[in-house]
Amino acid sequence: MLVMGASLLVRGSSKLALSFGISPLVVGLTIVALGTSAPEVAVSVGAVLDGKTDIAIGNVVGSNIFNVLFILGISALIAPLVVNIQLIRQEVPIMIGACFLLLALGLDGQLSFFDGGFLFVLLVSYTVFLIVQSRRETQLAKDEYAGEIKPSAPGAWDDRLPVQLLLIAAGLAALVFGSEYLVQASVSFAKAMGVSDLIIGLTIVAAGTSMPEVATSIAAVIKGERDIAVGNVVGSNTFNILGCLGVSGLVSGDLGLDMAPSLLAFDIWVMVAVSFACLPVFMTGREIARWEGGVFLGYYVAYVAYLIMAAQQHDALPAFSGVMLSFVVPLTVVTLVVVLIRRPVKKG
C-alpha cells in the first residue's frame, strides 16, 4: 500500500503540475522527490500519533542509512553510477548539513515542536531554492527530466483534472492506511522478537518505507539514467530529515519527540558517517564503481548485524565490534584515500 500510494501520489501530482504549466524539471526536483519520501512521512506521523516516537525517528535515521548503503550499493553493482558534479558541490554538503542539524537539535534528548517547525521552514526554503535554481538549469538538464516525466498526450486518461485529483486522493489514502498497518505490525513484531521499537524502526520499517526509492533508483539504472538514481537517494535523505521529522515534530505538539540515548550515541553518528562517505566515493572519478557499491552493501549488512547482536546482547558482539573498528573501517578509509589520490576529481 505504501509503494502503490507513493506511485499514485507522484503520478497524480506530477500530471496536475504539468497541466498548470510547471516545468518537468521543477516537478522532478520537488514533487517526485517529496513523493518518494511520502511513506517515511506517513509512517513517522502515524507513529507519533500512536505514541511510538522511537519508530518515527528510527524510521528516518534508518531510511537514510539504508538509502546510501543498500540502494546505492545494489544500484552500483548493477552498473557503475555516474555522479553529477552538482551533487558533489551542493546536494551532498546540504545532506551532511541536515544530518549535523538533526544531531545538534537532538542533543537535549528531544526534538521539540519548535525544532520541528524550524526543520519544516528549512524544507520550504530548500524547495523554493531548488525551484529558483532550476530556472537557470541547462537545456540538457531540462530535456533529461522531460524524458522522465512526460506531459499527458491529448486525450490520455490522466489528462483530466478529476482523474488527477482522484489519483492524489487514492495515493494519500493508501499511504495513510499502509502506514497504520506497518506501524501496528512493527510494534507487534518487535514485542514478539524481544527487541525495541527503535531497532524495528531502524531496520524493517526503514527498509519498507524506502521501497519507492529502491524502485526508482533501480529503474533509473536499468534505463541508463544513472545520475538520477544517485540524485534520488541524496535528495530523499535531505527531504527525510527536513520533511519527515519537521512534520512529525509539529504533529507531536507540546510533547515533542523523545530521542533514545542509543540513537544519539550511535545511530545518528552512523548516518553522519555514511553521508560523509559519499564525498570521497563520489569524487573518485565522479562515479560509484562496482567495488564501492559492494563496500556500501557490506557495511549495511554489518550495521544490521550489529543492531541485532546488540539487541540480543550476543556474546560475539565485542569481537565483532573490535574487528570492524580496528580493521575493516580503517582499511576502507585508507583504500578510499589512496583511490582519491590516484584518481583526481574530473572537472566539468
User: Major sheet: order of its strands?
Assistant: 1-4
Largest sheet: 2 strands, antiparallel
State which percent range the strand residues make up: under 5%
The CATH architecture name reads: Up-down Bundle
Reading off the top of the CATH hierarchy, the class is best stated as: Mainly Alpha
What's the mean pLDDT score?
79
CATH overall fold name: A middle domain of Talin 1
Count of discrete alpha- or pi-helical segments spanning 4 or more residues: 14
What is the fourth-level CATH superfamily?
NCX, central ion-binding region
How far the N terminus sits from the C terminus, by CA atoms, comes to 42 Å
Which spans have pLDDT < 50 for at least 5 consecutive residues? none
Count of the domains: 1
Count of β-strands? 4
Instruction: Report the C-alpha radius of gyration, rounded.
Output: 20 Å
**SSE pattern:** HHHHEHEHHHHHHEHEHH
